[in-house]
């Protein structure tokens, strides 16, 4: 399941760089949850043809992510945004000015780390 989720994310980022056939098959498989047989029936091609197209698409998507890294960077930014939100919500509940100052310093450290990447 985790691999399907990862490939779906990569498809969102790099799907436009696949061939139309690879993109269509990948969309059905990863986002539409179609089986290989269902895709083969719908597209009037062999099950092996579907599998071959998926293997090539996966290789392309994985290679693009290794070279460019948009999906990893996106995940890091999303995680940092969630962390910042959590810190801010905690700071809103704090009574001590010193605790709030510490929370704000944590936020600045996260932002500084993002700018250095």
End-to-end Cα distance, whole Å, is 30 Å
Would you identify the CATH architecture of the largest domain? Orthogonal Bundle
**Low-confidence residue ranges:** none
Quickly count the domains. 2
Rg measurement, Å: 21 Å
CATH H-level name of the largest domain... which superfamily?
A: Winged helix-like DNA-binding domain superfamily/Winged helix DNA-binding domain
Strand-residue proportion: under 5%
| The CATH C-level class name of the largest domain | Mainly Alpha
Q: What is the name of the CATH topology of the largest domain?
A: Arc Repressor Mutant, subunit A
Order of helices and strands: HHHHHH
Task: Tell me what you see in this structure.
The chain has 117 residues and is mainly alpha-helical. It folds into two domains: 2-68, Orthogonal Bundle (Arc Repressor Mutant, subunit A); 73-116. The chain has helices at 2-14, 20-31, 36-43, 47-68, 70-93, 97-116. Helix 3 (36-43) packs across helix 4 (47-68) and helix 5 (70-93) packs antiparallel against helix 6. The longest helix is centred in the last third of the chain and has 24 residues, at 70-93. The protein is elongated and about 65 Å long. 13% of the residues are buried. The model has no long low-confidence stretch (mean pLDDT 91).
């Amino acid at each position: 399941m985790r691999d399907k989720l990862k490939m779906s994310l990569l498809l969102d980022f790099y799907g436009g760089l696949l061939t139309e056939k690879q993109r269509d098959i990948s969309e059905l498989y990863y986002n539409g949850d179609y089986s290989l047989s269902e895709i083969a029936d719908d597209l009037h091609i062999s099950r092996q043809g579907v599998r071959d197209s998926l293997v090539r698409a996966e290789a392309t998507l994985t290679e693009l992510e290794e070279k460019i890294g948009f999906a990893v960077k996106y995940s890091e930014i999303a995680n940092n945004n969630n962390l910042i939100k959590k810190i801010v919500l905690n700071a809103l509940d704090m009574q001590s000015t010193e605790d709030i100052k510490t929370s704000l310093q944590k936020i600045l450290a996260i932002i500084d780390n993002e700018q250095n990447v």
